[in-house]
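Issue: copy button drops trailing tokens. Both records pasted manually instead:
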Amino acid sequence: RKHAHSCRVMLSEVGLGNASVLTLDYEAAKKHYGSALDVSGRLRDDDETRAWKARALEGRGQCEFDLNEAKKWYAKAQDIVSELVAHDSTDTRWRALESDLEYREGYAFRQLNEYGDSRRYLEKASQDAQDLCTRDCPTALDANGPLADPRNNKENREWSLLLLQAWRGEADLHLDMQETDVAEGLLKRAERVGKEITAAEPQWVRA
């Protein structure tokens, strides 16, 4: 019972941290993520706990204005996620977390003008998200095909949101590098995905 309560506290703190990031209240977010990390040290070291610890570390990185510091937090989260994926590469939760984290890392490297590393992370984020999107429906990303498998719409749209995020990140990188044609191609693909997500989940427009 104590373990279950601590798990709920950890999940709640991560959720509150995420909400604080959305409102740009980074000091509050730091406290919530810090509390989640404190609780994680008192829980069983299972995959679920480690995944939430990785989410807290990722969130903590988003609170840093110093991107070199942010990268340190992301690296800690990446170590955990890489082990989770290595342990079970078929678990879509870990693959989705991996794509989101790779995007954060790629964004940080881009802001630091470290374009080689940025490209590596953003392309991996994009590939991981594409693999998820086509997992149940191989034609999901075809130009005239359905975006999501109706058997699992919400989860597929969450994966599509990760893909939209990664493609936009890649496009911004190519614009920085004066590769306009490549950026335009990515933005057109992202636009289609964005329209379908917005039509299905209007409340996600902010994302």
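Record 2 (pasted manually too):
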Amino acid sequence: GRRVAALENGRVTLYTLRGKTRAEFAAPGAEALDASDGLGAAWGKHDAYLFTPSGKVRAHVTADDPIVRVSCGAGVWAVATLSDGGACAVTLYDAYANQIDRIANEDFADGDVFVDAGLSKSRLWVLCMNTSGAQTDSRIYFFDAAKSALLARIDAPGQTIAAVAADENCVFAIGTKQIICYNHSGIRQWQRAWEGMSLSARGQSGGS
């Protein structure tokens, strides 16, 4: 059944939807959570823990550079790190922490600065800001995590993509001028212009 995860003082507690405690385990250094339908992750500055809905810790990854994002997909999870010098890397692991792929600075365009990343099933998106031109533009990369392949690179000139949110069917880019819906291969499905509104969103991967 579905679980609700809570993180406090380096410990993760899983509850049923009725509030009954199902499992509890230590995740030293963890400060945030992410989840998909079949996997959960707790992570902090240098450590990430992958766990199952039953509360079994399946994998523990330690990173040399600070971890800035962890996202869970379908049998795969992504750990994004950012060095003090600004070098970004997104490492993809299977459900047992075997490395599948590593996407690093050389996979992005010159001037791209990492903002966020997330998984939806086996598709990875990475949001960057490009600072090489006269103005700062947003850019989204779409990767097939299972095949280690770049599917698309989407530029958003003239606006800032403030956040990306994903479900099992679509990836939504929430910009300062438009909301744009893409499929998981990076093909635009629709867009809506909007002005004068305020919206807060966080990139997600699948269901939480």
